[in-house]
Amino acid sequence: MIRRLAAEGLGTALLLISVIGSGIMGQTLADGNIAIALLANAIATGCMLYVIITTLGPISGAHFNPAVSLAFALRGELPWDEVPGYIIVQIVGGVLGVWATHLMFAQPVLQLSETMHRTGGAQWFSEFFATFGLLMVIFGGLRARPEAVPTLVALYITGAYWFTASTSFANPAVTVARGFSDTFAGINPAHIPAFIIAQLLAVGIGHWILRELFGRDQP
């Protein structure tokens, strides 16, 4: 259990390092061109997802996301008594990853996002859609080609940065952690609760839809 929790915490920290770090670097080098900054953000995040899912997946299942952990618990593939531990280390790991990134870029470690406002119906629906799509990719991939799941998730999130209005957080731990960074990839803390509600709704609704879509029997 300790190894699994360590893998989840480390993986989530690395995920946030890729999100925040590429956001800072992209914004710095793009000289105000938001499209280029977002492209750098998306590519770096997708690359990191492929790496951490491939390397840490055999240890913990490579959730790095409370929504994914809850979805696996609903399917009976993660014991409910292990869910709180997974969620706690994912959130803590995410925040530590944000702070590590601030250190790397010589920024104040302790920040709150004040400039990045992400709110409104379009943003909330985007988070619902992005999270549902992520779960579909994971469970559909496990059904069809388990070895392809790292690639599928990396490609999906890279694309979802661009085809969702919210740039596809799709992860409560990532959402909380990004509230602690007043950078390109941040989110105003006041807007975090609505994002998380949308993500959790996607888990609940997605559980029933995906169970029927991919079959009730487990591969």
UniProtKB/TrEMBL annotation:
InterPro entries the UniProt entry points to: Aquaporin-like, Aquaporin_transptr, MIP, MIP_CS
A Gene Ontology term for the protein's cellular component: membrane
Gene3D superfamilies recorded: Glycerol uptake facilitator protein
SUPFAM superfamilies in the cross-refs: Aquaporin-like
UniProt subcellular location: Membrane
Residues in coiled coil: none
The organism's place on the tree of life at top rank: Bacteria
Pfam family, one: MIP
Listed PROSITE patterns: MIP (PS00221)
Membrane topology per record: Multi-pass membrane protein
Keywords, sorted A to Z: Membrane, Transmembrane, Transmembrane helix, Transport
Any one GO MF annotation of this record: channel activity
Record bears the keyword DNA damage: no
Protein family: Belongs to the MIP/aquaporin (TC 1.A.8) family.
Protein name: Aquaporin family protein
Organism the protein comes from: Sulfitobacter aestuariivivens
